[in-house]
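Ligand: magnesium ion. Inputs:
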Amino acid sequence: MHLPEYVRQCVDALERLGFACYAVGGCVRDSLLGLVPQDYDLCTDALPAQIKTAFADFQLVLAGEKHGTVGVITDGGVVEITTFRTEGDYADNRHPGWVKFEKSIEADLSRRDFTVNAMAYSPSRGFADPFGGQKDLENHILRAVGDADERFTEDALRILRGVRFAVRYHLKPEENTMQAMLSKAGLLDHIARERVFDELCKLLPLVAAKDLLNFGPILAQVITELKPTMGFEQHNRNHSYDVYTHICHVVEAVPRELSLRWAALLHDIGKPGTFFMGEDGQGHFYGHDRLSADMADEILRRLKAPNALREEVVFLIAHHMMRPEPDKKLLRRHLSKWGAQRLDKLLLLQRADLGSKGVPGKTLPFEEIRAVMDEIAAENSCLTVKDLAVNGHDLMDLGLSGQAVGNCLNTLLSRVLDEELPNEKSALIAEIRRMYL
Ligand code: ATP
Ligand code: MG
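Predicted complex:
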């Protein structure tokens, strides 16, 4: 395994003093997979005070010192060095009640969640892999270290981490591990919502439809509103999938961007609550866009999602049934109201939605709409009040004041958007005179 120079220097600094020092966890796993690790974590039998002494000439990050972690700021970035440790007495299915510093690398590896994450490498001592992580990686197996039930009971967040690792590295959970992930999923209720949200945000950009189908029961544990969508038949000739299967395909079909992935996951969550069987023998879901948007708002508040993300997701869901057309005036209005970025995302969601019904049907004239949007952008069109060829001062110079100024600007914008007026100062002023003076 190759260690970059700045990491190698940290390892050597401790080894020179007679301590053992290993690269551990994600960086070993990723190296074995031929991937470039995002960062390198080190572990050692040196105690935190000894690590601090060894790196006395460096700037240190000491926020994790209590748990044995010292961050060393090198020219290649921060390298976290953690004393070998075990932990136990997990309160609340997440936080260890005690941490004990250890002398052996094997003890340290035994506290880690999955065998593929429980490997270490030292340039002088070689690989430490007491749980067969390398073999599991070769065989594409996700396996809990030790007793799976126990490990997920200690810390239930490991269940969601497991889903993420399985998806990211195409690992199949070994039978006991999968059983335990399912049977202990209820303990996820005890995990702080922020942590659950963080994990879901790491997971969503990675998933394909089949992953969401495989791990559906675990997802439904943290987003209970998904449960009724699973197996919910739509009884509609335009849909061959049940609601959840459709959702899974839409998630896969939108780009790997967070607000789009969340919007796709939640866009039809209101369908079971709005279903009715029409006299035509077809299932209908009138108002499901509004209900789904309201439910998404509640879910994302519960998960403590940042406001900006929540608002964008709710917007996308609330508008996902609107069918835009390649019509310049109409699109200019949308662009004026929402901006190009949002309209773009909305189109991507709608295209994915229409393309994921399992039967051929209506499609979105996506390319045509995009072409018209490009035309509008190229024309440098007036889309907001700020783009108008007159401003508030011009209006006040003409004798308008107070509310009338804002109202007048909005009226002018509306007429310019509709191509009833050119965005030219003389024409706008003539119109103001005609309307107000
Ligand atoms: P990523 O690429 O997502 O950062 P990673 O494996 O580096 O993957 P981290 O969350 O950075 O994951 O954790 C580093 C290592 O610490 C893991 O590889 C694992 O050995 C251990 N670890 C992290 N979280 C847990 C946990 N909740 N339970 C047990 N071991 C854990
Ligand atoms: Mg990491």
